[in-house]
Amino acid sequence: MAIPIIIGAVAIGTGIYGAIKGVGGAMDHSKAKDINADARSMVDEANNDVEEKRQSTFNTLEKYGKRKITAFDGVISDFIHTFGRLKNVEIVNTPELQNLGIHGFTSQSLSDLRQDYQALKDAGLGLGAGLGGGAALAFGAYNGTMLLAAAGTGTAISSLSGVAATNATLAWLGGGTLAAGGGGMALGTMVLGGIVAGPALAIFGHIMGNKGEEALNNAYSNLEQARTIRDQAKLTITKLEAISQVSTLASEVFQKITIQLRRSVDNLSEVISQEGSNYQEFTPSAKKAALESVKFAQLIKAMIDTPILDNDGNLVLSTKKKITDIQISLNS
Question: Where are the domains of the chain?
C-alpha cells in the first residue's frame, strides 16, 4: 500500500507546482500589462510632443512665406514702379552691403527684381490666392529666386505647393496636406534625422495571447522600442526648434526691412514729385533718399535669396549668420 501513497504525494506536489507556476504566469502577465502601458504612454507622449513642435514650426515657416509674398505684392512692387521712374541711374553703390556679397544696384538688378515679381504673378501667387495650399510654406523655406525661376519656366503650377511637395520634410511639416503625403512621426524623424521610428509598436496588443514569461519578455522589448522612439522624438524636436528659431529671426528681420523700404519708397516718391526723375540732377539729400531705397530693396532681395532649408529638407547652417549680417547692415 506504500506505492499509492507515494503516487498521491507526487500528484499533490505536481499540483502545487502547477498552481505556483500558474500564479507566476498570471503575475508575469500583470507585470507585462503594466510595462506595456508605460511603453504605450511613452510613445504617445513622444508623438504628441513632435506633433506640437511640427505644427508650431509649420506656422512659423508659413508666416515667413506669407510675409515674402505680401511684400512682393506690396512694397516691392511699389519700389519697382517708383525707382523705375528715375532716369540716368546706371549703378547705385552701397559699400556697406559689400560684406553680404552685394556690390551695387544696376538696371539689371531692377530688371531681375521685376522678373521675380512677374514670375510671382504668373504663378498665380498674388495676395489671397497664393497664401495657402503649401505655397507660403515653400516660399518661407526655400530660396525664393529658385522657386520663382521654376515658376517662370512656364511649368503648369497654380501654386508653389507642388514644389514644396517634392520635399519630404516640407510635406511632413505641412501635416500631410501636400502631394507628397504626411507619414506621421516616422517620416518626420526619417527626413529630419535620417532615422525611422518604425510603426507605433504594433505588437502592443499581442502579449496577452502569449505565455506569461514570453509576454513579459515582449513587454520589456516594447519598452526598449518605446525608449528608442522617445529619444528619436527628442532629436526631431531639437531639429524642429532650430528651424523654428532661424525662421522666426528671418521673419522678424524681414518685417523690419519691409517697414524701412516702405518709408524710403514713400520718401523717394516725394523726391521725384519735387525734383523730377533725372537722378543726375538730384540734390545730395535727394540722391541719399534714392540710395536708401536701393539699400533696403537689396536687403529684401538678399533675404528672399537666403533659404532656410536645403533641397533635402535640412536647415542651412549658414543661414543664421547671413540673416544676422543682414540685420547688422539694416541698422548701420
Answer: 2-331
